[in-house]
UniProtKB/TrEMBL annotation:
PANTHER family: CRP FAMILY TRANSCRIPTIONAL REGULATORY PROTEIN, HTH-TYPE TRANSCRIPTIONAL REGULATOR ARCR. InterPro entries: cNMP-bd_dom, cNMP-bd_dom_sf, Env_Response_Regulators, HTH_CRP, RmlC-like_jellyroll, WH-like_DNA-bd_sf, WH_DNA-bd_sf. This is Crp/Fnr family transcriptional regulator. PROSITE patterns: CNMP_BINDING_3, HTH_CRP_2.
C-alpha cells in the first residue's frame, strides 16, 4: 500500500456530498469538508491489502474515493465474517474515532483496487466542537446505526433462513434492480445471514428450480420479486 498525490479539493468535494454533511447549509458543508481533509493522506491499495487491523490504534478514518473496501472479523474457527462493503463516497471507521479504547473494532481491507484518503481523528473531534451541527449529525447517524443493529438482532433471532435470504436479495434489488451482483461470496453471505453455507446453497438451488431466481456464484436474476417480497415482509418496521 502506497501513498499517492491526489488533489485535496477532490476529497473535500466528495466529503461535502456525504450524508453526514448533507444536512448542513451548502457553504457550511464545504467549509467543514475542507477543514476535515486539511491534512488528509491519500492512499492506494490493491485488492486484498489491509487498510487497518482489528485492535490497531485508531488515529484515522477513511474516505473511499474509488473501488470498494470491506470491514470484517475472523471467527474462532478461522472463518471470516464481512460486516459491510463500502462504496465510493462513504466513510469507514468514523465511529471508531469516538470509542473510549481508541482502537479499531474490526479489520478493513481493500476489496478491489482501492483509492481514498486517511482523515485525522483529531480534526474530526475539533470540527465537532467548532460546528455543533456536525456533532448532532454524527449523533443522529450513530443512533440510526444502533437502532438498525437492534432491529437486526431481533430479526436474526426470530426469522427463518428463507426470510433472511429474501430480505437480503430485496435490499440488493432496491439498489441494483432485478439483476443483482452479490457483494459477498456464498460462504461470506451465509455467515452474514447467520446460516450454514450448505443451507444457503440448498435455498438458492430450490428457488432456481422453482423459477424464482436464476444464476450462479455472485450473479443472479430475480424472476419473482413478489414472492421474495412476501417472504421478507416480517423484516419491515413501521419506522
Amino acid at each position: 500500500m502506497t501513498n499517492i498525490n491526489l488533489p485535496d479539493p477532490v476529497a473535500a468535494d466528495l466529503l461535502a456530498r456525504h450524508a453526514l454533511l448533507r444536512g448542513l447549509p451548502p457553504l457550511a458543508a464545504a467549509e467543514v469538508a475542507a477543514y476535515l481533509v486539511g491534512d488528509a493522506v491519500p492512499l492506494r491499495a490493491e485488492a486484498g491489502q489491509t487498510l487497518f487491523g482489528e485492535g490497531d490504534v485508531a488515529r484515522h478514518y477513511l474516505l473511499v474515493g474509488q473501488g470498494q473496501a470491506e470491514v470484517m472479523r475472523y471467527g474462532f474457527n478461522g472463518d471470516e465474517r464481512v460486516f459491510r462493503v463500502f462504496e465510493p463516497g462513504t466513510l469507514i471507521a468514523h465511529a471508531a474515532m469516538f470509542m473510549p479504547h481508541g482502537r479499531y473494532p474490526m479489520q478493513a481491507r481493500a476489496r478491489t483496487a482501492f483509492q481514498g484518503w486517511r482523515l485525522c481523528r483529531r480534526r474530526l473531534h475539533e470540527a465537532c466542537r467548532q460546528w455543533p451541527d456536525l456533532a448532532l449529525a454524527l449523533l443522529a447517524g450513530l443512533s440510526k446505526n444502533l437502532y438498525d443493529q437492534v432491529n437486526k438482532v431481533d430479526w436474526m433471532t426470530s426469522s427463518s433462513a428463507p426470510e433472511r435470504l429474501a430480505n437480503y436479495l430485496m435490499g440488493l434489488r432496491e439498489r441494483q434492480g432485478d439483476v443483482v451482483t452479490l457483494p459477498l461470496n456464498q460462504r461470506q453471505l451465509a455467515a452474514h445471514l447467520g446460516i450454514r453455507a450448505e443451507t444457503l446453497s440448498r435455498l438458492l438451488n430450490d428457488w432456481q428450480t422453482q423459477g424464482h431466481v436464476s444464476g450462479k456464484r455472485r450473479e443472479w436474476v430475480l424472476h419473482a420479486p413478489a414472492y421474495l417480497e412476501k417472504l421478507a415482509t416480517t423484516a419491515k418496521r413501521p419506522f
